[in-house]
Amino acid sequence: MSRENMNASDHPVLTVRGLTVRLPEDADRDFAVEDVSFEVGPGEIVCVVGESGSGKSVTAHTVMGLIPRKDLTPVAGEVMLQGEELLTKSETELRSLRGERMAMIFQEPMTALNPVMKVGDQIAEMLEIHSSMSAQARNDRVLEVMRDVSLPEPEQLFHSFPHQLSGGQRQRIMIAMALALEPGLLIADEPTTALDVTTQAQILELVKDIQRRHGTGVMFITHDFGVVAEIADRVIVMQHGKVVEQGTADDVIGKPQHPYTKMLMASVPSLTPPVREAVDRERPALSARNLNKTYGSGGWFKRGREVHAAQNVELVVHRGETLGVVGESGSGKSTVARCIVRLIDPTAGEIMIAGNNIAGLGEKALRPYRRDVQIVFQDPYRSLNPRRTVGQSIVEGPMNFGLSKEDALVRARDLMNVVGLSSDALERFPHQFSGGQRQRICIARALAMEPKVLIADEAVSALDVSVQAQVLELLDDVRKRFDLAMLFITHDLRVAAQVCDRIMVMQRGLVVEQGPTAQVYASPSHDYTRSLLAAAPGRHTTFGAAPAAG
Amino acid sequence: MIGYIFKRILATVPVMGVVALFVFLMLRLSPGDPAAVIAGDYATAEDIIRIREQLGLNEPIFVQFVTWIGSLAQGDLGISIFTNLPVTTLIAQRLEPTISLTITTLLFTIVVAVPLGTLAAWKSGSLIDRFVMLFSVGGFSIPVFVLGYILIYFLSMELRWLPVQGYKSIFDGVGPFLRHMILPTMTLSVIFIALVSRMTRASVMEVLQEDYIRTARAKGQSEFKVLLRHALRNAAVPIVTVIGLGIALLIGGVVVTESVYNIPGLGRLVLDAVLKRDYPIIQGLILMFSFVYILINLLIDLSYCFFDPRIRY
Q1: Secondary structure element (H or E) that encloses residue A409, with its range
Q2: Distance, in angstroms, between B118 CA and closest chain A CA?
Q3: Minimum Cα–Cα distance from A181: chain B residue
Q4: Is A227's Cβ below 8 Å from some Cβ in B?
Q5: Torsion sign across C-alpha atoms A326, A329, A334, A335
Q6: In this complex, do A301 and B309 lie within 8 Å of one another by their Cβ atoms?
Q7: CA dihedral sign of residues B187, B190, B193, B199
Q8: Is residue A109 within 8 Å of A173, Cβ to Cβ?
């Protein structure tokens, strides 16, 4: 085990040795984690990396004692927090250690905070549980830690509810809560995954800063190698519940040894756009002119607030071309997609599909055009009806447009081959598939309509990086094969770099920059584009043996 | 917020208007001569004429409606046919026992059902949970009057712990009041407890899956406070909703319960009025119950703001 970052006198904050946790009997494998060993030293950031199901969260929750032992039973090994064995502790003993000596922050700060409690009180609760401070002393300490995590105007924010804060502020509140009692160990479970890239960069900076100033040992769980490159002192790579590789960040990222680590590295999309074949720009499939969407809430007594979700958006996508729409949450990229599919009605502007303006058409007149534009959503778990077989979901659309059931099934079987699934998948239900397979099904469902335009709305964002690479390949493949115009909406600049011919950058409803992908990445003209690129984690790092992508 | 309350109160006007129209037509659209219907099988011709004049049935129907609405607007619900007393006076006399019974039932239900449901959710799948669920199914299944007589038989007649029947006003002493209220309250509460504990269980179970519960546990908070401070308030909105809707259920139960325990409340007034076909009283009570129901719904909607700061009107 590497100890470069620890002085000889420093004892590790956390030592996990030979930890094995048994899964319930009906699970697909025997152990959630098996023979896992690692250490976290004081003032050290250890990243635990792995895809979903690798056991990284189970490890963290076992350390915290947050998993009912009857469901996930630790059967071997030891977990030492500052020299104290945790696995043999009673629930009451563990409770007094949680928050006081080990604290945890979570992925989604919106749901991790109690929505009906003031954020200040939620931080103060930590002190109330573990200290005998007076109410006044507690409040003072809360304001102090809020200042420590750089929250603006802590006196006002103290009395806010979580929904009144931004995502970044919410995660800062979580961090302030975790740090209120200066614990020796901080466990961060994907703390930036749900945040925008610029916010992510700030939160990563904050975690690093706090760890430096307070000497906290940080166990940082992530699936994102970009984040690892930014923050890690040491890296632990997990797969199927086992540690496959661990070492210093430089070693693991620069010279990965295990094939799984190499594969993960190779799957990280590069920020350098590959050279793409020229697109015939004489065949526009979709264009939008002066597209606007305004949300307003007018009342009886007062004029409502107006939100310009999309303003004067202009875009053209040609057949065989992919236009990337990038931006952070609230930038209006999904609004544009939903207007084009006419899931929502644009307030003003034109949407031209095959030479016809569909922006103002009524439902009946619109119907023939519906099949021309199809969309694949972010979350394949929720965009398939769980009570219908995959086959039923796929044939429904074509049958609505007059295809016989037999013909629709023939088409569905062909499409299963196209998306790389066997045709007996049609008989099964969505829950019998993995996330990547479900997204393939969603793509097949969209293609069954024989669309001219395919919109991918964050279609690979919920997928593990290795699966993501395969689905991206599939999307590029169907674009070529069916001569589709593709609108690719994403917050991930790495992904966008790999599959888009042109890029459109949106911020607060406005298109701030548009151009060929290589040009936008090499010489961004707008400040916002520059800040997005600067915030992309791991932008200075070349991942292991990763070949120049392309 | 103030604007919202104002709007909601304004919105009760058309609703009450529809109820009033229905109540008005109830008598006029029943087959045959309403006066004869009211007078009953043994009435003389003079009785019928008297009733017809008393109700203004000789006027055109439109004039009747306007006159009726006009007096309603002044708070006049008409005169009871059999007692010749104003309906408002009769209702006022009977209000206290019914309000008492409703409040004790509500309190008893909340005190029993919410902890019971929370416990069942927290220990879901356990013996306690199954017991609560069994009780809940049982509570739904036993008719109010059967349960009432069973309770009277054991607690009053066999054990002689409690009075069999009757009502004592709270103004004549809290002790006797409570002794008389225990049995009717228990009787009326059972179905309500079944409903509310089920809803509490479902709602708390859902909330216990939320991330912020995990956060509270990660802070080292005790399970009791996790439930009390983090789970219950987040689970409150559906629970409050079902308590409010349950009050409608109570109104039906009050009629039966008051008869079983011989309590001189509105339930008994309803029953007597229906048996005697005293239409003005029936109409007055329907209007009153509707109004109360609308008011309760408004209070429930407003209480959402208290439980969940994200809800703003």
Answers
A1: helix A405-418
A2: 18
A3: B219
A4: no
A5: negative
A6: no
A7: negative
A8: yes
CB < 8 Å to A177, chain B: 215, 219
pLDDT at position A6 is 44
* Strand intervals (E) in chain B: none
Q: Chain A contacts of B221, Cβ < 8 Å?
A: 95, 125, 129
Summarize pLDDT for B48-96 with one digit per residue, the tens: 888 777 777 777 878 888 888 888 888 888 888 778 888 888 888 888 8
* Cα B250 from Cα A51, distance rounded (Å): 54
CA–CA separation, A170 and A160 (whole Å): 11
**What number is the average pLDDT over the span A374-400?**
90
- B/e letters for B132-168, b = 16+ CB within 10 Å, e = fewer, are bbebbeebeeeebeebbeebbeebbeeeeebbeeebb
Tell me, what's the ipTM?
0.79
The answer to whether B123 contacts chain A (CB < 8 Å) is: no
Mean pLDDT of A206-216: 89
Is residue A283 scored above 90 in pLDDT?
no
Query: Cβ of A547 under 8 Å from any chain B Cβ?
Result: no
φ and ψ of B5, to 5 deg: -60, -45
Residues B241-259 have pLDDT tens digits of 999 888 877 877 888 888 8
Locate the chain B residue with the closest alpha carbon to A161: B309
Give start and end residues of each alpha helix (H) in B123-218.
127-141, 144-151, 174-208, 211-218
Model confidence pLDDT, tens digit, residues A449-472: 999 999 999 888 888 888 888 889
Q: Are B236 and B200 in contact (CB under 8 A)?
A: no
In angstroms, the separation between the Cα of residue A129 and the nearest Cα of chain B is: 6
Instruction: Please give the Cα distance from A67 to A64 (Å, whole number).
Output: 8
Tell me the helix, strand and coil percentages in chain A, rounded to 5: 40, 25, 40
Least confident range from A134-143, A279-288, A358-367, B35-44: namely B35-44
pLDDT of amino acid B301: 86
Half-sphere exposure (CA, 13 Å, Cβ side) for A441?
Answer: 33
Judge: A98–B219 Cβ closer than 8 Å, yes or no: yes
Nearest residue in A to B222, CA atom: A95
What is the edge-to-edge ordering of all strands in the sheet holding A185-189? A102-105, A185-189, A217-222, A45-49, A234-239, A242-248
Asked if the C-beta of A114 comes within 8 angstroms of chain B's C-beta atoms, the answer is yes
Q: Which residue has the tokens 């509460």?
A: B189
Contact call for residues A506 and A332 (beta carbons, < 8 A): yes
Return all residues near A134 (Cβ < 8 A) that are at least 6 apart.
Answer: none
Q: What tokens were used for B276?
A: 């005697």
Q: Kindly state whether B310 is in contact with chain A, defined as any CB-CB distance less than 8 angstroms.
A: yes
A–B interface: beta-carbon pairs under 8 A: 74
B164 pLDDT above the threshold of 80? no
Helix (H) or strand (E) holding A503: strand A502-507
User: How confident is the model over B262-289, as pLDDT tens digits?
Assistant: 888 888 888 888 887 788 888 888 888 8
CB < 8 Å from B in window 42-101 of A: 64, 66, 95-100
Best of A116, A127, A131 to mutate (most B CBs within 10 Å, chain B): A116
Q: How many Cα atoms sit within 13 Å of B70 on the Cβ side?
A: 6
Minimal Cβ distance to A111: which of B210, B307, B309:
B210
| Beta-bridge partners for A502 | A323, A516
